[in-house]
Every structure is written in C-alpha cells, then in structure tokens.
Amino acid sequence: MNMKITQTHQSKPAYVYVRQSTLAQVRHNQESTERQYALKDKAHTLGWPQRSIKVLDRDLGQSGAQMSGREDFKTLVADVSMGQVGAVFALEVSRLARSNLDWHRLLELCALTHTLVIDADGCYDPGDFNDGLLLGLKGTMAQAELHFLRGRLLGGKLNKAQKGELRFPLPVGFCYDDQDHIVLDPDAEVRGAVALVFRLFQETGSAYAVVQRFAKDGLRFPTRSYGGSWAGKLIWGRLAHGRVLSLIKNPSYAGAYVFGRHQYAKTITAEGDVQKNVRQMPPSQWRVNLPQHHEGYISMQEFEQNKQRLERNRTNGEGTVLNGAAREGLALLQGQLLCGKCGRALTVRYQGNGGIYPTYECGWMHREGLATKNCLSVRAGLIDDAICEEVFKALKPAELELALAALTDLEQRDQAIMRQWQMRIERAQYDCSLAQRRYEEVDPSNRLVAASLESRWNAALINLEEIKAQAATFQAQKARVVSADQKAKVLALAQDLPRLWRAPSTQAKDRKRMLRLLIADITVEKLSDKRLIILHIRWQGGACSDKTIELPLPIADRLRYSPKIIERVRDLAAQMSDALIAQTLNQEEVRKRTPIHIWRKHRQWFRRRQEQVLG
User: Top-level CATH class of 7-159?
Assistant: First the structure.
C-alpha cells in the first residue's frame, strides 16, 4: 500500500480517464487502449472497491490539446473541484491534457481538494511541493512533445511537397500513374466532363450558367471517392454550383502543384473556447507553388482570367465591379459604365410599367452625403443605341469571320456534348457485358447467386435502354447539325448584322455577352448645361474612342408651342374664330402631331395664355 493513499482517498470514488487522440488510434492502437482500461484493476489493487471505480471513456478519439469537445474531462474537472474524487488514474499525464492551461488548472484543483494523481510511474499528491513540481514538468513536456512531433511531421511533408512528390487526394480529372506522377484521368468520359465545364464557363462567364447547361442537356459529373470500400471508384451525379467553383479556383487544373492553399487558424469563441478553422490562403501565402508541374486542362493565363471573372460576378463585393456575368434585363451596358464624376460603376434602375424603362444612374456621392443630388441619370436606350452603332461600325469588316467562328464554336460544343452521351452509353454497355459474363460464369446449381446476378443483368439492360432513349431525345431536340445550306443562310444573315441584332429571337443576355467581348468599359460624362453626353469608350484591344450624344429636350419644351405657331395664330386671330384657326392650322399641317380634338380642347387655354398677343 502506498503511504500517500489514505482512508480518506479510498472513501471517495477513483476516476480512470481513458483517451486516444484520434479514431484511427482507437482502431489500430488497441494495446494502448487495453492498458488504459487495465488501470481499473490497478485501482482495485490499491484499495478502491469495484463499485467506487468510475471509467471515463467518452473522450476516445478526441485530442487533448484543448478542453472543447472533451465532455468526460469537463466532468472530471467539475467533480474534482467539488471534492468528490479520491484519485485520478491515467496511463500518463498526456492522456489527461496536453495543454498547460488545462493541466495546471486540474493540478490546482487536485491540490485544493487533496485528490491524488496516479499514472504508470507512481502516485503523486499535487498538494506536495515536490510532487506538484514533477507533475508540472510532466505536463510541460507533454505539451512540448506535441510541438516536436508536429514540427517533424510538417517539416517532412513540406520538404517532400517542395519537390512535388507529396501525395494527396487529387481533384477529379487527375490520377497517379505507376511512377507516382500526376497525369490526366485515363477515363475519356471523365476528361470530357471536366473539359466541358471549363469550356462552358468560358462561353457563359457564370458558374450558375454552367450548372444550368449541364442540367438542361442531361449531363452528369463524376466524383472520385476516397477511403472506405468505395476508395478510387467514380460516382456520377448532378453537377452542383460548389463543384464548379472548386474546379475554377483549383490551380491543379492549370498544371500547377500547390501545397498550403488551406491552412488552420485558431479563433476564440464567445464561450471562451479555442477553435481551429480551415481558411483559404491568398496565393502569396501558399507554402509550395510549382507551375507547369503536370499536364492541365487549361493554361495558367486562362486560370487567372477565370478567377477574375468570378470576382467580377460578385454582387456583394466592395468597390467598383465591372463586366460581371451577363444577366437578364433590357439595359445592354449593365456593368460596363463608369461615372465620369466619381468613377463608380453606374447602376441600373428599371422604371415604368413592369420595369420596361431602364435608366443608368450613379448616386454614390448623394448616398455618402457629398452631394445634394445624383451624379447623373440618363435613359438607357439613349446610350445603348449609340454604342450599338459604334459596334456595328467596328464589326462591319469582320462580320463573315465572326459568323464562321460562331458556327465552328457551336459545332464543337455540340460535338463535345454528344461525345459525353456516347461515352455514357459505352459505359452502360460495359456494365451490361460485365453483368452478363458474371451471370454466365456462375454455377447454375447455385440458384440463389444466379438469381441475384440475373437481376443485376436485367437492371443493367434497362439502364442501357433508358440512357439510349435520353441520348436520342437530346440529339433530336438539342443537337445542331449544320448543313451547307444552313451555313450559307447564316453567312448571308451575318452581312446584315443590325437586323440580326434587333431580331426578337436574339436575347438581351446574348447582346450583352457580345458587347463584353468588344468593350472593356465606358466612362459617361454628362454636360447638363450643354445638354450633351460624352461617352469615352475603351475597347478590349486597348483602343479608345469618344461618342457625343445630344440629350433630348424635356417633355415640357417638346410640347410647348413653337414661335412659328404663335406667329401664325397672331396673323389669323385678327379675322378668324378659334374653331377656324384650328381648322386652318390642321389643313396647313403646321402641327401634324396634335389631333384636332386636342387642339380644340386647348384652344381657349391658348388664347388666354396669348391674350396680349391675340388682342
């Protein structure tokens, strides 16, 4: 019997604390777990009855670096603080805590309540100076051990990553070959699906548009499973918006080997707990970045352009955002106009019945209290028509080449989509043939297995027929097979670009995309005193040009009687009545736009207003 263990200690329960840092250790390091459970027998040998020994093992698979998530450790600290524990058993002090804060708090409570701490090396009384000093050193070494282990492991990983040899789960579309080199996936259907995502994003400029196109065309996207019985297998399903964003933001698809894109960061919660969160780091803080490490699906330049397009698509960002994704709406220059007064991007306000009258305006200075009114406000149609005329002039020499390029792009896109359908049919055919071979190779006398394999074969055949029917439906409704006559008609139509531009079948979103291909941005300068708008156009190639537009007169000035009519009425008023004046003016077609009944309705008002003239 140890002299430090007294009858007072044995009269209180003994707590056996069992913990492993990870679930993998619980599964594979079972010897350590058995040694910790064996402490229950040690407590019984030291004099505690079986009924007074309590095992705390709910923290298996939890790290001891912090208290959060360890419910049994919290229970242990609470019971020790109330003096309800005689001794705490642990295989070593690192099982109790690897944080000096948690460890010394427990030691201080044990010293105040005269609770013993017993491990594989001996029995300690935290109230004794020497024992408390030794336990404090053990806790410090346990925390330092974490630092040494982490430094060694991370140093080895970083050294291997700097050579581009560290293996990690690859994104879909890549795999490792026999020499551990990163190569494109040998599955043609997987490569086609990944390449189609980047192609559609280049065409539409929006991640949501890519998802909608996949759903509209009935296409699937693969996911490679890691871990468990499904490790390495492909799972085909619906393409989600998050998957598109992860593909576009992943530099691996541009052929770069990157390590350290996501790193842990510690934060303190409102309850005072320390939490580790994963956050994405900027490229300047990536620990390893090896460009041109392997073959990619896109170039690094296209990767940077795609990230910039995603950033411009954000509608909740700060600052000036131009050239975002083309959206629905009648304002063709949405996201391409800059205010010539404050430099901010112009916004669009839709007015009228159902929002059919868009207006470009900038009210930043007014909102910030720097001005008493908006910087400018101008009807959208006035600027859109002027810019379209400039675009027609710029495109006139290249209309045929653009038409041919558009036809080629449509053909290539539809061929890529149909190729995905064909590979999906080939995969279903392989599944059918595999199910058939398995059924034919089974022993006929084993009826239970034969029936199961036969049902799988039938299901594979049904799935093949469904996929063939879906592919035929898509080909009949969606696919474009451009014949020679159709090409001739398109080329003829391209020579009359304004008519094609204004055709009802041409959507506003398509017009916006074409304008974004040609124009970088437009600075709008409004000269109210001269009733002029000056458009400073910056084209995509770097060239600049100006366009001046005259503002229409206000509605009051446009409806006001002109001096010509007033002079004519003065001449006729001396010898004619109001009715004869109206009839004469309409016969002379001096006022063509105003009907007779409108003139008669206002003739008395006109005479009153011009009383001094008509006499």
Answer: alpha beta
